[in-house]
Amino acid sequence: MVITMHLSLSSTTALAAAIVAAASVLAFSQLPDLLVWAAFIGWASYDHSGATPQAAVRSSTALTFGVVMAWAVAIVVAANALPLDAPVATGVSAGVASFVIVLASRLRYFAVVPATFYGFASTFAYLSLAPGASTIGALTMFGWKNVLVAVPISLLIGTGLGITHGWLAKFLATAGPKVAPGHAARFGGKS
């Protein structure tokens, strides 16, 4: 009896996602300064943006722009640049930043507004989760504790994960069982 396996495109895509996700979680567990959750957001942004080379550039640019805009909001608030309570200053600054983000979407590389907001939100997630991350010292230092370093690098690794996922899915779809001419792959004990 000859058994031939053919996986559907959705099955190879799912298998590729499982392999890349598992490898990512394992790798990130060894790199505590990088953020696996941000990498998954970067991966989703790449897919959401079209999963093409152009999408990689546009999504990555927008993600990073979102991080920079949120970082600017955090700087304004941490420096007490507005004569307002911190929650009000944060709200006003985030409103101004959102206005700039949407206005900037007229530019080709900033046109993926959802990706910009993924970067924006990821930055605020990090600032909310990491103790002391919202201080001027942390926001201006050069190192992994600065949101301007850890978040965009993690998001951009996510773009790479998305690219890897697409490549692996295509590889799995085209790399079915190879059998030499005149020979059949057999299962069940007989050849």
Give a structural overview.
There is one protein chain. The chain is mostly helical. The protein has a domain at 34-163. The chain is 68% helix and 0% strand. The protein is built from 7 helices and no strands. Helix 2 (36-48) packs across helix 7 and helix 3 packs antiparallel against helix 7 (147-174). The longest helix has 28 residues, at 147-174. It is globular, with a radius of gyration of 22 Å.
Instruction: Report the helical percentage.
Output: 55-70%
Strand content is under 5%
Profile the largest sheet. none
Number of helices: 7
Give the overall form.
globular
Summarize model confidence as the mean pLDDT.
88
User: What would you report as the Rg, rounded to the nearest angstrom?
Assistant: 22 Å
The low-confidence parts are 177-191
- Which structural class is indicated by helix and strand composition? mainly alpha
The tally of beta strands, per DSSP, is 0
End-to-end distance, in Å? 9 Å
Q: What string, H for helix and E for strand, traces the elements in order?
A: HHHHHHH
Brief overview:
Helix content is 68%, strand content 0%.
List the helices and strands and how they pair.
Blueprint lengths: L8 H21 L6 H13 L4 H26 L7 H19 L8 H17 L6 H5 L6 H28 L17
Helix pairs in contact: 1-7, 2-3, 2-5, 2-7, 3-4, 3-5, 3-7, 5-7
